[in-house]
Design a protein that fits this description.
Elements: H1 9-16, E1 35-36, E2 39-40, H2 43-57, E3 65-69, H3 76-87, E4 93-97, H4 108-118, E5 120-144, E6 152-162, E7 167-172, H5 174-182, E8 189-194, E9 200-206, E10 222-223, E11 231-241, H6 242-252, H7 270-285, E12 289-293, E13 295-299, H8 306-317, E14 323-328, E15 332-334, E16 341-343
Parallel strand pairs: 3-14, 4-13, 9-10, 13-14
Antiparallel strand pairs: 1-2, 5-6, 5-8, 5-11, 5-12, 6-7, 8-9, 15-16
Bound molecules: adenosine-5'-diphosphate and magnesium ion.
């Protein structure tokens, strides 16, 4: 899938101003250390954020909102980023400035909906039958190209895999051979071959095959020799977001142009989303998936208008909703799209 993403300068600038922040700087009891993790002071706000993080991790916070208010430069964005760092890799964190909601290509509600669905993760557990082992030997066989007799193409391979307990030799078809070649598999690599799809995964190098060489930057992962039978069932876990599932279903479902593929930044129909929700719920019921509610941070929230607020408050009540953190530096101000004044411009 090709990725062509426009670089939005504002967004990167905003993150880089906070690159010193690595967490909330709390101790194990949730008390703020005065200076830690790139944070200083704002002790009460950090401790409060710590409680929020704890509740999110325990799954006790889905579908609620938090409002951060303070003049510019008081650390609202910094706090949101620190929360994201604390939540860990698996928990989705999406940052949106309210002004981005008013984009020319998409409806306001669609921008918000996509942001919300990017902020909800699904941890999928999948049991696959794989061949796992260290490559002991690998011989590629070539054949003449069907249309060009002067070039040779890989036709099959003979591969010997070993674990601590077993050693077996297989011949594999041309598809798997291509996979082995394109992934650069060598003797001494630990690999998985999916028994159903033939997909090859390179896990790393087995410990002890390479003479110890130490560089400042170690890019290779060394792992110990796998044990047990070569053909085994393994559980794989991956985290995707609801938005990624929406996109992949929209693609498969033929709901998009066959000629041009799926436009990444276009609207996704509500039928697609309903089907994704239904599938995900089914997987959760079967114990094959877990929902990870993440965080949607909306900065300068006073810039949202009445319609956007109406959409948000309704969406927050739905079953699959992220935690929404809103930030603003306004006091009493007009709700955009109306003549009504209210605290922070929020209805
Ligand atoms: N408690 C803090 N400790 C260390 N740096 C902070 C803290 N709060 C804010 N900063 C830094 O100060 C700058 C302004 O904070 P920012 O979060 O952008 O404010 P706001 O979003 O409220 O306008 C940023 O570079 C931010 O990383
Ligand atoms: Mg800010």
């Amino acid at each position: 899938m090709p990725e062509i993403v426009e670089v939005r300068e504002g967004r990167f600038e905003r993150i880089s101003a906070h690159s010193h922040i690595t967490g909330l700087g709390l101790d194990s009891k949730g008390k703020a250390k005065f200076i830690a993790d790139g944070m200083v002071g704002q002790v009460e706000a950090r401790e409060a954020a710590g409680i929020v993080v704890k509740m999110i991790k325990e799954g006790k916070m889905a579908g609620r909102g938090i409002l951060l208010v303070g003049p510019p430069g008081t650390g609202k964005t910094a706090l949101a980023i620190a929360i994201a760092r604390e939540l860990g890799e698996d928990t989705p964190f999406v940052m949106l400035s309210a002004s981005e909601v008013f984009s020319a290509e998409m409806k306001k509600t669609e921008v918000l909906m996509q942001a919300m669905r990017r902020a909800i993760g699904v941890r999928l557990k999948e049991v696959r039958r794989v061949y796992e082992g260290v490559v002991k030997s690998l011989k590629i066989r070539f054949t003449r190209h069907p249309y060009n007799p002067y070039t040779r193409v890989p036709s099959s391979a003979r591969i010997t895999l070993a674990t601590r307990d077993e050693e077996k030799t297989f011949t594999v078809d041309s598809d798997i051979t291509m996979e082995l070649l394109s992934k650069g598999i060598k003797v001494g690599d630990v690999i998985w071959i999916d028994s159903e799809t033939g997909r090859v995964t390179r896990v790393g190098r087995v410990k002890g095959v390479d003479k110890a060489k130490y560089y400042d930057i170690e890019t290779e992962t060394y792992i110990s020799m796998p044990s047990g039978p070569i053909l085994k069932e393994k559980e794989f876990v991956h985290v995707v977001t609801l938005h990624q599932l929406d996109l992949s279903l929209a693609r498969q479902g033929g709901l998009i142009s066959l000629l041009f593929g799926v436009p990444m930044e276009r609207e996704i129909s509500s039928e697609v989303r309903e089907r994704v929700d239904k599938e995900v719920k089914k997987l959760v019921d079967e114990g094959k998936a877990e929902i990870i509610p993440g965080v949607l941070f909306i900065d300068d929230v006073h810039m949202l208008d009445i319609e956007a607020f109406a959409f948000l408050s309704k969406a927050m009540e739905s079953e699959l909703a992220p935690i929404i953190i809103l930030a603003t530096n306004r006091g009493i101000t007009k709700i955009r799209g109306t003549d009504i004044e209210s605290p922070h411009g929020i209805p």
